[in-house]
Design brief:
eight-stranded antiparallel sheet; 5 domains; 34 helices; Transferase(Phosphotransferase), domain 1; about 30% helix; globular
């Protein structure tokens, strides 16, 4: 039989039928249908049906494995655009780009695709117009439904449909809803049940988006917990501003509706209730043991799952979404149903989230709630369970109605249990008779009242204790009931047949990694910009520079701006700025700023003045404009406006060098930061060689008994380019003259700066160290720290990625600006904000090199030549060419002219934070040879050790040993050990032994008891006759399960040892607090073969944050290499 050929009409019918098969609101075409429609027969027939040219070429392209275009073919066929397929596929446009977005601009259209996160020029032929691409984007979505495989978490773009063939009515609660759904079987693995509960959260605020991203980690971790009374998520995804979680469907509904809909007949109901109470407590105990808190325990978050016996098992759901829930609850309007149902079971400490008027307090999402939060909530659930079991369904429904409208078990006004709750408790007590069934009700009631519903969270029993006592009550009851069933008999309550709620509202755990979260006030890593008018006024009073003429063209609206007002604002739409940009300098400036910010034509730019800057949207936003008061105008009544000009002096002008000289003069004479001929009474050691630049030519000089000399040092990138270097073959020639024309541009410009500053000598590594003499290189490399520390000033060629690029001329165009007159007749200049230290300094190629950190830190003063302007760094902070002063607490050490004395103004916590920040930053820098990692910081480490008055080696300080050792790799990155020469040993416990970035544990100060089980020792001190520095410690056996390894352990490298051989050295533990489990800070070690020692020795393999039960009591003395 001949197969019916495909036509476009048949193709379109197949697509429409495939969409109609689904009864959900998600419009998609299944992968089953897609496979049919992209079969070779279908593609060939349709290309032929539409008379497409070059059909063989097109088919090869459609099935290309590298650049497949099957989905593109389907979209174009359905859009009846196959006549354009050749142009669409002309430039490697493939299915990998889908989905795409299209943006129309004045100069054409741009695309954003799954492959390119930025807007790019469309990769199509010239014949494809905007309307074609726009229609293509409209037709793409049904073909892009995801196939959920083994991963748990997925990120979907807004518009991508879910492969749902069925979707029930949604139960809405707050900003979330729950629906019963059925997935298309071709889009989920075979072992997953197709019917699920889908919880959808609409994320309207940045806070909600932030917490969903954070809590996704908790939800994933909880999937490793195996417990019969916990519901585990199957998969999760985000789609635009939606978060979607998929859970097993609970056929019995939730406990809240069960209690309202089912009778309590028979003693079996009490037995079943006790079994479920024990199970729920056991689950809660496991969560607490692993450091989790649910945060929204209530009957609606306890689901019924059928068992083979015909009974139902209760399971806690919504574990893993707590912070999101608390955040949402604290933001909702009073009186909403969602808030009422949630708050009913909340403990007294929940009031911390609200003020006296019931409004959320500021930073309510940051308040740490008790870890016994859940015990109160479970006590409330038990009371309701008992009301149903003893007083019956009708009484429970009456009680439920009385608790509507935001009533809670806890009456915060009277600081007592609510009257309706007390009334029902009294009803329970009155109904109790002298029967076995009633006695057990009374015992559970007393347990709830005396050990769970207590005002002070510290007085409540733990989940583990409640579990044990409930087990005892249940087992005793079963023994007394001779012959009674373990489970429910034929009289067991049946769930209502009308129930269709598998999941209900939101739930919430506390982060189990609380000990790893930031708990101390770290020094803020943020640059602030402030005027420095004392210096500016002196500088301009001594210079003859005249004010630039007021030639600004201003429109009528800009003439009305009062930017001199302290709270001045500037706002307007990008379209309006664009219209006037050609005739108004201010609008031109604001249009350029709007473009840089990526605003759309109809979007509004809004900024407010904050001192000498205007900040985006508010004073907490980033600065986008700078304000300058003309030096001829008295700015005292303008309120902190920088005196100066927005434009820079020409690169090699006398005005520019006068500024550099003034910086040096003030630093020498007012700050006292100049290097004298002696330092602390000791003679300053000069470099071995210097370049003399005092006349029109330059030559190399050997510095022996020359005494103290002023010289500049150049910090620069070699950049892989071949440059003139000193070698054994040319050093004698260079002592006479260095050929200037053969020097790379960076060196020539460094000589210009040195001469302009009237300094006779310059030090450049490639010319002052003999590059082909290993002995000279080793000797001079060891003294590198002294070279920069003793230099009069350092020239940093920050903007030059290679030695031949040059650095004197800024790489970026000067800032746009406008000038406005004040009512008093003065001039105010406003310009683009240029002082971006992260861009200009920290992220530039020079400052990503490992060797440069030591050069920068040990330099007394530095002129940073960046791509925008020059920055001056000295002991008085960081200043820029436009005369602002910039500061960042974490960069304090770099601005220290006598490194690292600045660290002494901090207390112990600040000192630790500073050196940890320094080492974290250093670990992220690049080396041509990774074996230089411990060497390139030796001088810096020696200075730190001296000032801190402690032994320091390999990135570890003896005075702060435990904190020094608690470094680890970042998430999702493993480190690689570095291979060193045989005669050089870096210990395994030092981060210097590994390639890759590190981070330090954020451990609270003054809240940890540090152990004396670990000591820094030399080999001789341990009796091993080794010359290496080692750790002498007590190692203990560890008891770790799968979840502990996932949540509490961080290994340095991905493999290389047996987990069974893992042992731990306790470095410290939290001081005891009832509000949470004690965390033990542990160094992980294992036995390894050491070639140098020719024996098996203990080495570090990672760190861990463990609980007491994870660690054995007894240990043995070990030496860690």
């Amino acid at each position: 039989m001949v197969a019916t050929p495909w036509t476009l009409v048949r193709f379109l019918d197949e697509c429409e039928n495939a969409e109609k098969e689904n009864s959900s609101d998600e419009v998609f075409i299944s992968t089953t249908t897609i496979n049919l429609l992209t079969s070779k027969e279908c593609v060939s027939d349709i290309l032929k049906d539409r008379n497409c040219p070059n059909q063989d070429v097109l088919k090869k392209r459609i099935y290309d494995r590298r650049c497949p275009a099957k989905i593109i073919f389907l979209i174009l066929a359905r859009a009846d655009m196959l006549d354009r397929i050749g142009e669409f596929l002309s430039n490697d446009f493939s299915d990998h780009h889908l989905p795409i977005e299209v943006l129309w601009t004045r100069v054409g259209y741009k695309l954003k695709s799954a492959k390119d996160s930025d807007w790019i020029t469309a990769p199509f032929g010239a014949g494809i117009h905007y309307r074609d691409v726009d229609y293509f984007t409209q037709k793409q979505w049904p073909f892009l439904a995801p196939i959920f495989e083994r991963e748990f978490e997925y990120v979907l773009q807004q518009g991508i449909p879910l492969p749902l063939v069925e979707k029930g009515n949604a139960i809405v609660s707050g900003f979330s809803s729950v629906s019963k759904i059925k997935m298309h079987p071709a889009h989920v693995p075979e072992q997953i049940e197709h019917s699920m509960a889908m919880k959808k959260m609409e994320l309207e605020s940045e806070d909600q988006i932030k917490y969903v991203n954070k809590e996704m980690t908790n939800v994933k971790s909880l999937r490793l917990l195996d417990h019969d009374h916990l519901v585990k998520a199957i998969l999760a995804c985000t789609r635009g501003k939606q978060a979607l979680f998929f859970f097993p469907w609970a056929k019995g509904g939730d406990l809240y509706n069960f209690l309202k809909s089912n009778s309590n007949e028979g003693m079996a109901a009490i037995i079943w209730m006790l079994d479920q109470m024990v199970g729920l407590c056991s689950a809660l105990s496991l969560l607490a043991d692993k450091g989790y808190r649910h945060g929204d325990l209530k009957p609606a978050n306890i689901l019924l799952f059928p068992e083979k016996s015909g009974s139902y098992r209760l399971k806690i759901t919504d574990v893993g979404l707590s912070k999101l829930h608390i955040l949402a609850t604290s933001r909702r309007l009073n009186g909403t149903t969602a808030k009422a149902t949630t708050r009913r079971y909340s403990p007294p400490e929940f009031d911390l989230l609200f003020d006296d008027d019931g409004e959320p307090v500021e930073d309510s999402d940051d308040i740490k709630l008790s870890r016994k939060f859940d015990i109160w909530s479970l006590g409330c659930v038990f009371i309701e369970f008992l009301i149903w079991a003893k007083l019956g369904r009708q009484k429970y429904k009456e009680f439920d109605r009385s608790m509507k409208r935001d009533r809670r078990f806890w009456d915060s006004g009277r600081e007592d249990l609510d009257d309706k709750v007390k009334e029902r408790i009294q009803n329970l007590k009155d109904a109790v008779e002298d029967t076995e069934g009633d006695k057990v009700v009374q015992r559970v009631l007393e347990l709830a009242l005396k050990q769970m519903l207590l005002v002070n969270s510290d007085d409540r029993s733990s989940a583990s204790d409640i579990h044990k006592k409930l087990e005892s009550i249940r087992d005793s009851y079963k023994q007394d009931l001779s012959g009674a069933n373990d489970g429910m008999d034929q009289n067991e309550p049946e769930p209502s047949s009308t129930q269709d709620e598998g999941l209900h509202t939101t739930a919430v755990p506390s982060g189990h990694t609380a000990a790893m979260e930031q708990q101390s006030a770290k020094l803020l890593n943020q640059w602030t910009v402030n005027p420095d008018n004392e210096f500016a006024k002196k500088f301009f009073s001594e210079t003859s520079s005249s004010s630039p003429a007021d030639r600004s063209r201003l429109c009528d609206s800009c003439l009305m701006l009062s930017i001199w007002e302290p709270n001045a604002t500037i706002s307007g739409r990008m379209r309006d700025f664009q219209t006037l940009a050609s005739t108004c300098d201010m609008c031109n400036l604001l249009y350029a700023i709007s473009q840089r910010l990526g605003l759309e034509e109809d979007q509004e730019l809004h900024c407010i003045r904050d001192g000498s800057t205007f900040k985006l949207k508010g004073r907490d936003g980033p600065p986008i404009l700078s304000l300058f008061s003309d030096p001829a105008y008295n700015s005292d009544d303008l309120g902190s406006v920088q005196v100066g000009y927005p434009t820079l002096s020409p690169p090699e002008s006398p005005e520019r060098y006068r500024l550099f000289q003034k910086w040096l003069y003030v630093c020498d004479n007012e700050h006292g930061h100049a290097r004298d001929a002696s330092s602390g009474g000791c003679a300053v050691q000069m470099p071995t060689r210097l370049i003399y630049v005092g006349d029109s030519s330059e030559h190399l000089e050997d510095i022996k008994d020359s005494g103290f000399l002023r010289y500049l040092a150049l910090s620069h990138c070699w950049g892989g380019s071949t440059s003139l270097s000193t070698l054994t073959s040319n050093i004698d020639k260079f002592r006479s003259e260095i050929p200037h024309e053969q020097l790379p541009l960076n060196f020539q410009e460094a000589i210009k700066v040195t001469r302009a500053l009237k300094i006779p000598y310059l030090w450049i590594d490639s010319l002052c160290i003999i590059q082909d003499d290993p002995e000279d290189w080793r000797r001079e490399a060891a003294r590198m720290g002294q070279v920069f520390s003793n230099a009069y000033c350092t020239i940093a060629a920050t903007s030059a990625a290679a030695s031949n690029k040059g650095f004197l001329t800024p790489k970026l165009n000067s800032a746009l600006s406008a000038t406005l007159k004040t009512p008093e007749g003065g001039l105010l200049h406003i310009s683009e904000f240029m002082e971006n230290c992260n861009r200009d300094l920290e992220s530039e190629p020079l400052n990503t090199r490992g060797w440069v950190m030591q050069e920068r830190a040990l330099s007394r003063r530095t002129l940073h030549f960046t791509k925008t302007q020059v920055y001056w760094e000295c002991g008085n902070g960081l200043h820029c060419e436009r005369l602002f002063k910039l500061s960042n607490p974490q960069s304090a050490l770099f601005a220290d002219s006598d490194f690292p004395k600045a660290i002494l103004k901090y207390y112990k916590g600040g000192r630790i934070t500073l050196f940890q920040n320094l080492y974290e930053k250093y670990s992220r820098l690049n080396f041509s040879y990774t074996s230089d990692r411990p060497v390139a910081i030796l001088g810096l480490e020696k200075h730190l050790s001296s000032v801190l008055q402690t032994r320091g080696e390999f990135g570890v300080f003896e005075q702060y040993l435990a904190r020094s050792l608690l470094w680890s790799r970042p998430e999702n990155i493993f480190l690689n050990s570095i291979t060193f020469q045989d005669d050089y040993h870096v210990p395994s416990w030092s981060w210097m032994a590994y390639e890759g970035p590190i981070t330090y544990a954020n451990i609270p100060f003054d809240e940890v008891e540090w152990s004396t089980d670990c000591l820094l020792r030399s080999g001789e001190e341990t009796g091993t006759n080794s010359k290496r520095t080692v750790l002498k410690a007590v190692a203990r056996d560890l008891k770790l399960d799968k979840l502990d390894m996932h949540d509490r352990v961080k290994l340095d490298e991905g493999s290389g040892f047996e987990l069974s051989n893992l042992r731990g050295v306790v470095l410290g533990k939290d001081k005891k607090r009832e509000s949470r489990d004690q965390v033990y800070y542990v160094l992980l070690v294992t036995l390894s073969e050491d070639e140098a020692e020719q024996a098996k020795v203990y080495v570090r393999v990672g760190v861990a944050w463990l609980l007491e039960h994870n660690i054995a009591m007894d240990g043995e003395d070990v030496v860690i290499y």
